[in-house]
Amino acid sequence: MNIKNYNDPAKAAEHEKTYGYFAKAAVRKRTYGISARAAAILLAGEIVVDSISSLDLILNASQYTGAINSSGTAGTVAVSLDETSTWTLTGDSYITSFEGDLSNVNTNSYTLYVNGTAVN
Fold it and tell me: How far apart are CA 22 and CA 33, in angstroms?
């Protein structure tokens, strides 16, 4: 997934139409927000969201293998898994909110923290 930041809403909308996910940048406050929707796709790798950024990760019929903010808490991260999606942790992960069934998260002996609380 190649996520881009766009200052121009028209370019962001064009990107969403072409690639199926939306990326935006709120430059005025020098903060960046990404909304990534994955449908029927395999994703892998570590995601790092810094303290001035946010991520909404929405998985539909998808699999994600990786860790999010494994070094500790940072930016705002919301993760949503539908009933057919899975997330396999490759490291401790720190997010601010989770929507879905935690049984779809394979912790692999790592810990998932939601808003600072271990949930597994």
Answer: 10
Q: What angle do CA 36, 3, 14 make, to 5 degrees?
A: 85
Query: Tell me, what DSSP letter sits at residue 75?
Result: S
Task: Give the Cα separation of 72 and 102 in Å (integer).
Answer: 20
Give the separation between CA 50 and CA 118, rounded to whole angstroms: 20
Q: Measuring CA to CA, which residue among 36, 44, 29 is closest to residue 79?
A: 36
Helix (H) / strand (E) containing 76: strand 76-81
**Which pLDDT tens digits describe the chain residue by residue (120 residues)?**
444 444 455 655 665 555 554 443 333 334 567 777 777 888 899 998 888 888 999 999 999 999 999 998 678 999 999 999 999 999 999 999 999 999 999 999 999 999 999 998
